[in-house]
Amino acid sequence: MKTSLFSLLLSALLLLGCNETPFQPYMPEEPEILPYELIQIPAKPVGTPIFTETETIDGSKGGQVKIHEHYVTEDGDTVKIDLKLKIKKNCFSGNVDITMTVDDVYTAVQFSPKMVFDEPLELDFKYIGLDSDQLNLTSGSYKFLYLGDNGETETILSDGIVVKEQNGEISIKNAMLDHFSRFAFAR
Prior knowledge:
With 187 residues, the protein is mainly beta. Helix content is 11%, strand content 43%. The chain has helices at residues 2-18, 132-135, and strands spanning 52-58, 63-72, 78-87, 95-102, 108-112, 116-128, 143-147, 153-155, 161-164, 169-179, 182-186. Strand 9 and strand 10 (169-179) form a beta hairpin. Mean pLDDT is 84; it is low at 12-16 and 18-29.
């Protein structure tokens, strides 16, 4: 009798347990995709070269990659672009050819090869000569973003973004890059 009663109680318990919501496997959240507007640069005349620089950097020693360029717009105005990537000692291993390429349409920069660093690299990036009226530089909140191929974005830590309307300037100091990809000013 005890065995029958135990079996009946065990069966009832199993039936009640099966009526609960089934186990749901963990599904990671989708990457964050934020709405943003990239800041356009004034049009370059046809034939203006792409601004790019490649340096071989020994990861154990560190180094820098710099671009200091300018171009004259189709309207005759001058746009200056200054970038400096600072690589501290031991941020990565071995010798790597690091390429920094300035975007031809937006206030953006692309780095290669794709890699992740042991310590963040620091980027100073400045544009002078943007059309502040057309680009509405003084309104809105500005960010410096990682732009993923799938639309994913991430705000990059830095010492801050400076906007100076009088000379059409936008700049960032010490943007902390923990990997290489595409990065841009946005609002």
